[in-house]
Amino acid sequence: MKHFETELPEGYREVFTVDAADQKTGIKLNLMGLPVLAVTVAAAWLILRPRESGAHTPAVSSVLLFIGGLLAYLVLHELTHGAAYKLLTRRKLTFGIAPTVAYCGVPDIYVYRRAALISLLAPFCVFTVVFGVLTAILQAPWDKFLAAVALGIHIGSCSGDLYDTFLYLFRFRDPRTLMRDTGPKQTFYVPKSR
Q1: 124-163: per-residue pLDDT in tens?
Q2: In this predicted model, what pLDDT tens digit does every residue of 88-108 receive, in sequence order?
Q3: Which of the chain's termini has less CB crowding within 10 Å, N or C?
Q4: How many Å is the maximal CA-CA distance in the chain?
């Protein structure tokens, strides 16, 4: 199965662009993740009740590990997109950080719907399991709570990826749909109607 085109095929037209580096769009995408984070933190607080564990605050080492883990996660999230793109296309990747987004893309090609969906969802699938398992296996109540917060941050930070996935699932369902992913900007192309 062909995963990409090196040139936009004849008969395609640009139909939609998501530019997370654009301040207005980036803020909207980031705000979409806040309710997920809020619900996750509230649920974790109510279910895990870390303050009732005897320790009224988490250990400093737990907080430092949490902060370091989130920084590592930021890099690993983008590397996971990159690994999926690299496996499917073998093309040069681009990575970066803009004020509203960290990103990975394959700017020199046009990716078909299936390959784009795999790359978009790879970090969501991998890290939802990682943070879910950490929440389940950690023993100390504050550590469990911080792992649940990390899960909420992860799901919320996938808002741009999930938005693009939503577009593919409900708006651009034609398997011939192409996407040019420069990293912070995804442009969708569909075949012109005959």
Answers
A1: 999 999 999 999 999 999 999 999 999 999 999 999 999 9
A2: 999 999 999 988 899 999 999
A3: C
A4: 69
Q: Which two tokens stand for residue 38?
A: 């809020």
Non-local (6+) Cβ contacts of 96 within 8 A are 102, 103, 183, 184
Report d(CA 176, CA 15) in Å as an integer.
Answer: 13
Token digits of residue 131: 């943070």
Q: Under a CB-based contact definition with an 8 Å cutoff, are residues 52 and 90 in contact?
A: no
CB-CB neighbours of 9 under 10 Å: 11
Tokens of 32: 């979409």
Rounded to an integer, what distance in angstroms lies between the CA atom of residue 25 and that of residue 169? 20
Question: What does the alpha-carbon distance between residue 41 and residue 103 come to, in Å, rounded to a whole number?
Answer: 25
Neighbouring C-beta atoms of residue 180, cutoff 10 Å: 22
Q: β-strands 178-181, 185-191: how paired?
A: antiparallel
Which DSSP string corresponds to the chain?
Answer: ---EESSPPTTEEEEEEEETTSHHHHHHHHHHHHHHHHHHHHHHHHHH-GGGGS-SS--HHHHHHHHHHHHHHHHHHHHHHHHHHHHHH-PPPEEEEETTEEEEEEEEEEEEHHHHHHHHHHHHHHHHHHHHHHHHH--SHHHHHHHHHHHHHHHHHTHHHHHHHHHHHHT---TT-EEEE-SSEEEEEEEPP-
Interatomic CA distance for residues 89 and 156, integer angstroms = 28
